[in-house]
Design brief:
The protein is of the alpha+beta class. It contains 14 helices and 14 strands.
């Protein structure tokens, strides 16, 4: 089969949506629930983020695509995504939408230089959104860009290089490995607002050496500001840590001049997000890729027969979701009800839900590690803090299970099956089982600790009760009116009362303080196998331990 020409492999329209999850550090360690987005609701020159109103306000502005998007999902997912009542007016009770979206609009374009000396690629920015979730310390950056009329190898290189939070390594010339040579955020007037710094090797090496955590490239730091990296020296209202691999998950919509011109190696590289390569050479071995179509391709709407209309092909690895079709197909490019509309809304939401679930589970796991690392069984204050943190985490995980954990999100075949494929590729169920088991272990530890403290209390009360029995009988005997003290003066009776009350208080305090040793002496006293001398020595140890 002759190789396809460059014109046949032209990308007429490229859309990429990067999805970057980050872990938001607590604003207050003792607060069980925190609304991080409230820190961004006050406008300022340092804060470009503004809250996005949902579409469920004015019925005259509610469009058919909004309706189509809404009815795609099952009712529990509808409540999660859209809430109940009139938008968010009712408040964030259980059943209201727990999602808050903040958006910045000051960066309309991205200039991407892939290699030194290469012609820059100009990408139009469609949306820069930051998704927050009620009761979950996770935010997801959704960054949508688009470009038209790109050669396939250039488009593939854009997908491969763009969305790198930091370099994995450095080339011999100092360029960040697998990263663009330069990324520039452009303002509305064309001015450069921020530039990448992948080439600053010393910065990344020094940061990891000092903080044992990777630094973030300067342009991504700028994009998230006023949020600041946890280990950074900068000040900001919200601090975050990375949860993902340095390469951000992404979705891609590709409208090709001729989609059938792509070879199997082209499709595989596109699906796995690999660098451009020879169209006749597989990126990995035949054996490794033997089940590629079965595992990663969804071809319900794709006809691969020669001469047939291509339709739409979906490919997913969990980390990526690729939607491929023909530019000449009106339904594929339909921005109102077509595949493009579904890609930007229904498909985006199912990809968002899957990666939100993964990020949340990783956040819980990270939080448990941090909680356990601060545990000191010899420090009562640390123990109390540990118990409180575990209780808060257990409560949050319970709400996560009931509000955010879905195995199915739709009865619509395409949405249901794509979501199932994405979840399977992300291995969400094993991750969920692992985190749940860790939390159950923590819960069991708290129960054992509670029982131990309760047993200690019962032992102390038992010892006090046994030794207090002597005083109770004695005072009861004195209360039998053997001695007529009612005729004594008031001061005399007061002195007599204090003469009994004060020693009793002292004896009770001493009994409680020695209750553990006294309980051991009582056990020894009841043990028939011990001699009288051994029982006496046990009593001696109560008052003079170690002698």
């Amino acid at each position: 089969m002759p190789a396809a020409s460059s014109a046949e492999k032209q990308v007429k329209n490229l859309r990429q949506i990067l999805l970057w999850p980050v872990y938001l550090l607590p604003l207050d360690e003792d607060a069980p629930i925190e609304n991080h987005w409230e820190q961004l609701q006050t406008p300022s020159p340092e804060n470009p983020w503004r809250e996005v109103d949902d579409e469920f306000g004015d019925p005259s502005e509610f469009q058919a695509r909004h309706y189509s998007e809404f009815v795609t999902f099952l009712p529990p997912v509808q409540r999660f995504l859209y809430g109940q009542g009139l938008g968010k007016v009712v408040g964030r009770t259980y059943g209201e939408s727990p999602i808050t979206v903040m958006r910045r609009t000051d960066i309309p374009k991205v200039r991407l230089t892939l290699e030194p000396g290469s012609t820059p690629v100009l990408l139009d920015v469609v949306h820069i959104d930051l998704y927050f979730f009620f009761d979950i310390d996770v935010a997801l950056l959704a960054f949508e860009v688009t470009a038209n009329d790109l050669p396939f190898d250039v488009a593939q290189d854009v997908l491969f290089r763009f969305g790198r939070a930091y370099p994995a390594y450095w080339e011999a010339d100092g360029q960040g490995g697998h990263c663009p040579y330069k990324v520039e955020w452009l303002g509305a007037d064309g001015s450069v607002k921020s530039v990448s710094d992948y080439e600053k090797k010393d910065k990344y090496l020094g940061f990891v050496c000092q903080h044992r955590a990777p630094a973030v490239a300067s342009h991504w730091e700028y994009l998230l500001s006023p949020l600041v990296l946890h280990h950074s020296d900068r000040h900001g209202p919200i601090r975050y840590r990375q949860l993902e691999y340095y390469r951000m998950p992404y979705m891609v919509f590709l409208a090709m001049e001729n989609a059938s011109a792509l070879s199997r190696p082209d499709l595989i590289r596109l699906a796995i997000g690999s660098a451009p390569g020879d169209s006749d050479e597989l990126p990995y071995s035949d054996h490794y890729l033997a089940d590629f179509e079965a595992k990663h391709c969804y071809d319900r709407y794709c006809d691969l027969q020669p001469g047939a209309a291509y339709g739409t092909r979906f490919m997913t690895t969990g980390h990526t979701l690729i939607v491929l079709g023909e530019a000449g197909d009106g339904f594929f490019n339909g921005a109102d009800g077509g595949v493009l509309s579904r890609f930007r809304h229904q498909h985006f939401l199912l990809f968002l839900i899957a990666h939100f679930q993964k990020a949340s589970l990783r956040m819980f796991s990270d939080r448990l590690v941090a909680i356990v690392s601060r545990l000191d069984i010899t420090d009562p204050d640390a123990n109390r803090t540990f118990r409180r943190a575990i209780r808060n985490t257990l409560e949050n995980f319970l709400r996560f299970e009931h509000r955010y954990w879905f195995h199915e999100i739709s009865n619509h075949a395409q949405a249901r099956e794509l979501f199932s494929m994405t979840r399977g590729q992300l291995e969400l169920d094993p991750l969920y089982d692992e985190v749940r088991e860790e939390l159950q272990d923590m819960g069991n530890f708290l129960e054992v600790e509670a029982m131990r403290r309760q047993n200690d209390t019962v032992v102390r009360l038992t010892v006090v009760t046994i030794l207090g029995l002597i005083g109770t009988i004695t005072t009861g005997f004195l209360g039998m009116n053997l001695f007529s003290w009612s005729d004594q003066a008031t001061w005399w009776r007061t002195v007599a009362f204090l003469a009994v009350f004060v020693p009793t208080i002292i004896l009770t305090i001493m009994t409680v303080s020695k209750s553990k040793r006294l309980s051991e002496w009582l056990d020894a006293l009841a043990d028939d196998t011990l001699t009288t001398g051994e029982k006496f020595r046990s009593f001696w140890q109560v008052w003079f331990p170690g002698k």
